[in-house]
Each structure stands twice: as C-alpha cells, then as structure tokens.
Write a structure and sequence with these properties.
Layout (H helix, E strand, L loop, with lengths): L6 E5 L25 H13 L4 E5 L9 H10 L3 E6 L8 H7 L3 E5 L4 H8 L4 H14 L4 E7 L7 H8 L5 E6 L14 H17 L5 E4 L24 E4 L4 E3 L11 E2 L5 H6 L5 H4 L16 H4 L4 H8 L9 H11 L7 H5 L1
Parallel strand pairs: 1-2, 1-8, 2-3, 3-4, 4-5, 5-6, 6-7
Antiparallel strand pairs: 8-9, 9-10
C-alpha cells in the first residue's frame, strides 16, 4: 500500500532562547550532531520527491539556526508550501525575509495573557515580543496564527485572549499540553477542564464566525454528541505526516518522543524510510486488536483508531487508547448525571 506524504514537521534545531515549562521537546541546547546545511538541503529534495505538500519548520526556535533561510528558500523553490512556528522573540529581525518568502502561515506561541505567558515562558517581555511579531506579520500581509497550549496554569485566560485576537486577522490554534518533555503532569487539564475548553471553542466559533478561525490541535477530542465537527479520522503519523528531528531521526510525529524513531537519514534516505513496508507499523498496520481499554468497545473505533497517539502514549503508555476523547468524557458525565452547561463556569471564574 502506498502512503502519500502531505506534511513534514521539521525540528530544524533544538536550540531555543526560552525555557518554557510545558515544552515537550525540552528545547534549550541544540542536539548533538544536528544536520548540516548540505544534509538539510538534500532532505528538502527528498521531501519534494515524495511530493510532500507542506513543510513546517520549527524548533526549538527555528530562527536561531543560521541557515534557516537557505532551508526555507529551498522548500519554496522545490514547490512545497512553507510554514513556520516560532516563539516570536527575534522574528522581527527576519520580517523582510518572511515577506519575500510568502509562507503559507507562521505560527507564534501565545500561552496566556502577559503575566501568565511570561511566567510560563520564563522571560518578562516574551508576551510583548510574541504579540508584536503577530502584529507585524499581519501588517505585512503574512498569514499568522497564535498557538496556545492549554493546561491548568493558563486555560482560564482563553476568553481574554479571544478579546485580544479579535479583529486582527489572526488564526488561533488551541492544543492540549501533555506530559512529555518538561511538562509536569500535575498541570494537565482534568477531563472536565478539557471539555470546558472545547465548549468555549465551540461557542466562540459560533459567536464570532467570520471574525476569527479557531482550530483545535489534533489532540483535541473526538466524536462528540453535542459539539459540531468534532470528528477524527485517526492518527496520521506515518500515514500522511512525518516528524523530522534536528539530528535526522525520523518519527511519525515529533510529539511521540524519541522512543519511536524509524531510522536516521544518515543511515537510510528519507525516501527509503518512508517507503519501507515495515515502517510506522503502529498506524500502517492498525487493526482492532491494537485498541486499548479506553477505546476497544467504542462504536467509532474503525474511524478514530484510538485518538491521538501522542496523548495516548504519554498518559497510558499505549497507542490507540486516548482517554481525552469527547465521546468517552460525555459518557462519563451522563453516567454521573453532570450538567454540561455547568462546565462553562470552570473557565469563566
């Protein structure tokens, strides 16, 4: 069976100028033996040969890599869409480069209002720099998205962030912090808190339709009885998505961690890794017997395939067993006699 690569998420360096408490990569210092420029440009060519549609350059902080612009230009020259994810601290220095590149989108992390964001990111002016970066890009017609990773320390800031983002031409992606890297599980949202965020997102989409696009990350719940468009067609790691670590290790998804490396491009070309019939077997060879306890009796199993594998493994040490599923959470609420509308109070207090 052939698998078509749509998106490559590329950690170009692990070097970072922040020390965020929820960072799943433990970014800070660059990895040993990160790919050099020649290797990175060869990787771009292999991605193009695989007909990859979009290449997302991230880190760490991608703008700290000295040859990031060469890589970005190569992606564009080879006919692929270019996306980037940054913390926004030094983005203004490269604004003219971004204007010339015309990326598909640039994401900048905003993890709460100023006080919250600066505490999470460990730098007093990090919020101001991040928001300035978003503003500069929109003023120069660069598509820009704010990315908020939610946990107990910041989820109550979402209404204030919505007010801040409205009318600025921004997109907004909200995603769940999971216990990998530096993130401590004690800050993980409870099921009720998680669902309250989903209710906030749904009501905000309806109320502000046409004003702002609000998207949930792939970790954000599935198959709700009550929330529209909460559908899921299974984890796409190794199906149409690939993760590239800065040392050339290839995974299905960067959020799954280093324990699931298929190979390294210094040992085997990306094309050969992708086309290996034994690669990414957890998804490519999925069957019902792989489902965990949370999912094995679910009526949506064939489509959902057990939810987000990164979330599933980080919380249960198994794939295809994601406990943060709307359908499962709603079943629990109904069994307890919970009133769903009360959950909104958790985010408005």
């Amino acid at each position: 069976m052939n698998f078509n690569l749509d998106c490559a998420v590329w950690e170009t360096t692990l070097n970072c100028n922040l020390n965020c408490l929820h960072c799943g990569s433990k970014a800070g210092y660059k990895r040993r033996s990160e790919l050099n420029t020649k290797e990175a440009l060869k990787l771009c060519k292999d991605l193009a040969e695989l007909n990859c549609f979009n290449v997302c350059l991230m880190g760490g902080e991608p703008f700290l890599r000295k040859d990031w612009l060469k890589i970005a230009k190569e992606v564009k020259n080879l006919g692929m869409e270019l996306s980037l994810v940054s913390n926004g601290l030094i983005l203004d220095k490269f604004l003219n480069d971004l204007i010339e590149l015309e990326p598909y989108v640039v994401g900048v992390s905003i993890d709460g209002t100023s006080k919250t964001h600066n505490k999470i990111r460990g730098l007093n002016n990090s919020f101001e720099k991040a928001f300035e970066s978003l503003t500069l890009m929109r003023e120069n017609d660069i598509e820009a998205t704010a990315i908020t990773t939610v946990h107990k320390l910041n989820f109550k800031d979402l209404p204030a962030l919505l007010d801040l983002f409205l009318g600025r031409g921004l997109g907004w992606q909200i995603q769940l912090a999971i216990p990998i890297g530096r993130f401590n599980k004690k800050y993980l949202l409870s099921e009720e808190e998680f669902y309250s965020v989903a209710l906030f997102m749904t009501s905000s989409r309806i109320k502000h339709f046409g004003e702002i696009s609000i998207a949930g990350g792939h970790c954000f719940g599935y198959n709700s009885r009550f929330l529209p468009n909460a559908k899921w067609n299974g984890c796409q790691a190794g199906i149409n998505v690939i993760g590239i670590e800065s040392n050339g290790d290839i995974t299905g998804c960067l959020s799954m961690g280093g324990g699931f490396v298929e190979d390294n491009i210094r040992n085997k070309s990306l094309i050969d890794i992708w086309n290996d019939e034994n690669a990414f077997s957890y998804n490519r060879n999925f069957d019902k017997n792989k489902l965990g306890e949370n999912c094995k009796d679910c009526k949506y199993w064939a489509r959902c395939k057990g939810g987000c594998n990164a979330t599933s493994y980080s919380l249960t040490s198994k794939f295809h067993n994601d406990p943060y599923c709307f359908f499962k959470i709603e079943n629990n609420f109904l069994q307890k006699g919970s009133l769903l509308d009360k959950l909104l109070l958790k985010i408005s207090k």
